[in-house]
């Protein structure tokens, strides 16, 4: 008992739990929840980077280690409950645009990621990124939070295949009658049904304010899926992307070697103009995805001060930058702060102890990969939908009667899910904020900073030139 008390005392000194209105149990549950919602990256990242010619096993290990290192840095340098891992979208850009489309080798692409991380670090140390964060009006910060909410809810709907592509309407609701006719109900149909039932379960748990409700919702949906598989209602079909829901230990427990990707960066084309464009593209998306995540999650968790600033933001930005370069050394694409961190925050996570739990789980995933890789997307989708709802509530803080504030905020919110990009939402929100207020004669009243004008000009040029 004394040992437990001593450990809690150490954790209190390290993470200031009471000061942040939390405790060890809450932080552990929050870390588990965050990890469960982003563990998919351990399966998805290797499969995407494999298309660039990289060794899948090595990328799996690099992904886990990059997430572990970057998330630990976040805990140590900022004491925030944010988790980091190789980012979705940036890994697709790496594999399909830079390598497959532009003809660069994956080794050269890793060099671009490494350099981007170094530039990112310099911008963080010189307060440029912090100044960008602080210059953005509060209405846009609330809009970023709401936009990310819609964005990650849409990702959840896609992951569960509740919505899919449609030639007429672009997206449409899953057709159960169609799946029965096409004899796919035992794969796609049943998983969509489980995701919908899981979403209802998640909602009930949130309404009843069950502690750890999001985590229990994930585990409950996964367990229901395993029951369906055991009963023959769900039939795995790996050829169509539907795998067994039970962990597979047939290959034993072992850590895939990382030798095929470790320190394999090729800087031979670093002075070419194309290489500079690639570095800028990685840098641009990473900067504003990260700032968007910090703004959105920070606003939702009431971490911003009265002036809309995030205390200790420099530590968070440095963690992100170092994580990117470390990830490139290990052999993976850009590491960034995950919007899924909001799931742990929704469970009450408020300090770096949440991040430590996430980092430890990424470390354990190296040895227990069959367990973590068996978590199906239909089980984590309800969590993303639920957290999307929680984050969208920030929209109520936008002053809608003031059109000079609310119209740019609306554009920001709308752009993120529709254009499938956090950075696009921020870009268009800033452009609209500056143009609407300048052209309507409210420039002096709004006290728009010089940096906002510069950002708006850069974003306009980006759309014209890139």
Structure keywords:
4 strands; two-stranded antiparallel sheet; about 475 residues; 21 helices; single chain; two-stranded antiparallel ribbon; mainly alpha; about 65% helix; about 5% strand
Can you tell me about this structure?
The protein has helices spanning 2-15, 24-38, 41-49, 56-78, 90-101, 106-125, 128-135, 138-159, 176-181, 185-207, 213-231, 273-300, 313-330, 341-346, 352-365, 369-373, 377-392, 403-419, 422-439, 443-446, 450-465; strands at 84-86, 163-166, 170-173, 335-337. 67% of the residues lie in helices and 3% in strands. The protein starts with a helix and ends with a helix. The strands form two sheets. Strands 1-4 form a two-stranded antiparallel ribbon. It is built from 21 helices and four strands. α2 (24-38) packs across α15 (352-365) and α4 (56-78) runs antiparallel to α13 (313-330). The radius of gyration is 22 Å and the shape is globular. By secondary structure, the chain is mostly helical. The longest helix has 28 residues, at 273-300. The model has no long low-confidence stretch (mean pLDDT 87).
């Amino acid at each position: 008992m004394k040992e437990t008390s001593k450990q809690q005392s150490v954790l209190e000194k390290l993470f200031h739990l009471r000061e942040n209105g939390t405790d060890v149990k809450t932080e552990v549950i929050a870390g588990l929840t965050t990890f469960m919602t982003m563990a998919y990256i351990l399966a998805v990242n290797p499969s995407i980077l494999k298309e660039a010619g990289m060794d899948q096993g090595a990328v799996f290990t690099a992904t886990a280690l990059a997430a572990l290192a970057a998330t630990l840095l976040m805990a140590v340098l900022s004491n925030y409950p944010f988790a980091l891992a190789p980012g979705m979208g940036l890994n697709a850009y790496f594999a399909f645009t830079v390598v497959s489309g532009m003809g660069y080798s994956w080794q050269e692409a890793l060099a671009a990621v490494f350099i981007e991380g170094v530039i990112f670090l310099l911008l963080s140390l010189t307060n440029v990124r912090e100044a960008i964060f602080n210059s953005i009006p509060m209405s846009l910060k609330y809009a970023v939070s709401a936009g990310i909410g819609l964005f990650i809810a849409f990702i959840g709907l896609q992951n569960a295949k509740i919505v899919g592509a449609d030639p007429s309407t672009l997206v449409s609701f899953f057709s159960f009658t169609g799946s029965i006719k096409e004899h796919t109900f035992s794969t796609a149909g049943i998983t969509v049904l489980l995701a919908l039932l899981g979403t209802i379960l998640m909602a009930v748990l949130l309404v009843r304010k069950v502690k750890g409700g999001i985590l229990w919702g994930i585990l409950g949906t996964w367990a229901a899926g395993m029951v369906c598989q055991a009963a023959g209602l769900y039939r795995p079909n790996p050829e169509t992307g539907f795998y067994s829901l039970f962990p597979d230990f047939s290959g034993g427990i072992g850590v895939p070697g990382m030798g095929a990707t470790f320190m394999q960066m090729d800087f031979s084309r670093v002075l070419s103009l194309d290489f500079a464009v690639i570095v800028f593209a990685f840098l641009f998306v990473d900067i504003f995805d990260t700032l968007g995540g910090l703004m959105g999650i920070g606003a939702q968790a009431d971490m911003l001060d009265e002036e809309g600033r995030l205390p200790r933001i420099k530590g968070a930005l440095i963690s992100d930058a170092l994580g990117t370069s470390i990830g490139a050394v290990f052999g993976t694409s850009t590491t960034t702060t995950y919007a899924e961190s909001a799931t742990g925050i929704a469970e009450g996570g408020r300090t770096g102890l949440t991040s430590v739990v996430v980092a430890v789980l990424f470390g354990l995933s190296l040895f227990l990969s069959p367990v973590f890789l068996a978590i199906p997307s239909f089980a984590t989708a309800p969590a993303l939908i639920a957290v999307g709802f929680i984050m969208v509530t920030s929209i109520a803080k936008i002053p809608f009667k003031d059109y000079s504030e609310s119209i740019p905020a609306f554009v920001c919110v709308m752009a993120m899910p529709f254009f499938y990009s956090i950075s696009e939402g921020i870009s268009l929100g800033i452009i609209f904020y500056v143009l609407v207020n300048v052209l309507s004669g409210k420039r002096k009243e709004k006290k728009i900073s010089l940096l906002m004008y510069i950002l708006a000009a850069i974003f306009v040029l980006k759309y014209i030139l890139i």
